[in-house]
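User: Please fill in residues for this 303-position structure.
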């Protein structure tokens, strides 16, 4: 679904809203019709993106019915038309909030999701609880760098290594590593199966949000189905091919007592615990997210 740019000189078309409240209501209606569940949130964020305002400032401007410059209103309508096609909001604004970070994202890189923030917390808690004075963490398949950079900034005494094998994603990852500027984080282009051999047996925490959708599954959300890169979504016939690789690589990297954290789909916890147990991991445990869905599985490296 697309919407034409409204020209003020054409009296056959509706006039451009002249204030924030009117434009906000128009956007909410249009985005709702396009099937966007959080239309109010997206409307506020699109307006805020153009006006360089926070969501709270946009809402306050709406209450006060603050006037709009016509050029700003037209620009916002154009962005709303893109969002109505289900182009991800993060692609339109070029940014994705993740924990304390505001990451650069766009075509070619997986947009980090709020549920992954909880998965990152598992790794952060593990790093903070371990006795290592300078624990090493590795993020396998870092994508935008969301997890690795969160670990590096929130556990500043840790050293964090991240690997990504997609050239398209790596461009975004590199920008985020430069922009965040965490001196304790290192990014490498390569494959997770043979990454960081010089760290074998020294790592405290390995974390990964690998592709885990089965090859014949069709993602429900158009934002995922149409815009996220396939290589970041699909993990083989049962969705667990990369999970198996992560298990083997983590066994190589982790020291005795080190912790593995893997994000996965809500129906995969039982099978992943079996895979990890068969590989020799200790105490594989599955953790739920805030919506009570199974979201991540952890395990401990045996001696």
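Assistant: Residues filled in for all 303 positions:
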């Amino acid at each position: 679904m697309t919407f034409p740019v409204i020209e003020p000189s054409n009296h056959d078309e509706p006039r451009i809203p002249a204030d924030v409240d009117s434009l906000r209501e128009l956007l909410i209606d249009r985005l709702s019709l396009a099937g966007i569940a959080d239309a109010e949130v997206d409307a506020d964020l699109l307006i805020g993106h153009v006006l360089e305002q926070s969501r709270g400032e946009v809402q306050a401007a709406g209450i006060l019915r603050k006037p709009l410059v016509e050029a700003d209103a037209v620009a916002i309508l154009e962005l709303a038309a893109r969002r109505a096609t289900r182009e991800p909001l993060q692609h339109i604004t070029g940014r994705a909030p993740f924990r304390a970070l505001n990451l650069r994202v766009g075509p070619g890189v997986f947009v980090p999701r709020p549920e992954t923030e909880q998965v990152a917390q598992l790794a952060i808690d593990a790093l903070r609880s371990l006795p290592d004075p300078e624990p090493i963490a590795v993020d396998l398949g870092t994508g935008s760098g969301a997890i690795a950079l969160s670990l590096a900034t929130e556990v500043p005494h840790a050293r964090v290594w991240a690997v990504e094998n997609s050239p398209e994603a790596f461009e975004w990852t590199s920008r985020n590593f430069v922009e965040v500027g965490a001196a304790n984080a290192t990014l490498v282009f390569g494959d997770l199966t043979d990454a960081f051999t010089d760290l074998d047996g020294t790592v405290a925490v390995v974390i990964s949000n690998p592709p885990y959708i089965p090859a014949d599954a069709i993602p429900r959300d158009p934002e995922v189905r149409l815009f996220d890169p396939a290589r970041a979504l699909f993990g083989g016939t049962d969705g667990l091919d990369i999970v198996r690789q992560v298990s083997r690589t983590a066994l190589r990297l982790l020291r005795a007592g080190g912790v593995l954290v893997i994000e996965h789909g809500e129906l995969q916890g039982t099978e992943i615990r079996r895979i990890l147990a068969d590989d020799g991991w200790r105490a594989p445990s599955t953790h739920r997210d805030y919506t009570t869905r199974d979201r991540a599985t952890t395990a401990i490296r045996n001696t």
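For context: The longest strand covers residues 254-263.
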